[in-house]
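Folds vary. Our protein:
___
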Amino acid sequence: MPGRSIFLGDGLFRPDGGSGRLSTYRVALPLGLSALLVSMVLMGPAVTTSFDRVVQPGLAVVLAALSAAAWVRGSVGRIDQLLLISGNVFLVSRLAFTLAAPDLPARAAILATGLPWIVVLLLMNGWLLNRHAATLVNAAVVFSVALCALAWWPGTAGGPDSAALSAALIQLMFACITLLVVQALMARHTAALRRHVQQATWDANQDVLTGLPNRRSLMRRLDACATREDGALAVALIDVDHFKAVNDEHGHARGDDVLRTVAHVLRGYLGGRGTVGRYGGEEFLCLLPDIDAAAARQLCETLRARVADLPMGGVPITISVGLAVGTVPVPPQTLLESADAALYRAKARGRDCVQVTVRLQQDGAAVGAAPSPGRVEPVQGSRYA
């Protein structure tokens, strides 16, 4: 459905997705159809109204069609819509007809066959609709039931079944209101739980200091990028030069400011062209998919120059960048080791520069020199102060 759907938000009984709803419908819809057919057969003339004789066969046809659609994997959204529309309209209309029809015999017995299904209807609204839509629809249903009861009430005096019918309506209203309260409390609890889960997910994947993706998140994204079927992937390992000296001479608070500022520059310049995260300590990792070595090197040179121009209150800040470019699929660890080798070379050449490793093929072997002088073999681990 186009736009923001009112279905499957944070309902009271939220399904587990399209396939789960189809499985549920394959059981629930035939059972509902069976219950309707049994009531049509067993209810005698005394408890059958003209409304039932006209509308119930049509409802049976709708349920049969929805059951068939569930088995042939029809549109789950359409099943949701037709089921809710037909159910809400049928039950509220039947209640209104039963209470408003003049001289209707066995009114309490007729009404008793539909009252339990109104509660089921409220549950289904809460199951299929998101929290706000379910609250509005269920409130409208309960309001309609209350209006029907109030419209019938002045004519109850002296009726043979008025006491039983009054008690049934009162019990129905209590049940509906209780269900609305429970739904509101459950929705509130679900929303709070969802916020906690979202915060926990963010905390597990983001670096608290810089707001960038942390190492765990970066490794997942690197694995996804490196295992694609074709294309290129550049990995840039960035280290803040002499960061230990910044902490020692200016304090850890200033060091944190430096890391936040560098992170802001990296994220702001990359935009949607790649992913940057905090790899650990003063190291950052940039993932640049679908970019060649020359473009990746130019991007890293621009990042290096922008960081060098940062006004950090008299604290000179520069970065060294080790860049590796591979043709995917390529082992992620190979790219990391090659970027690490390039970064080690940048450190050895005086820092504040960009160095690039060789281009790698799928098995990690070198197939051509990147546009950077010299060649450094991959090394294990990081070796910089």
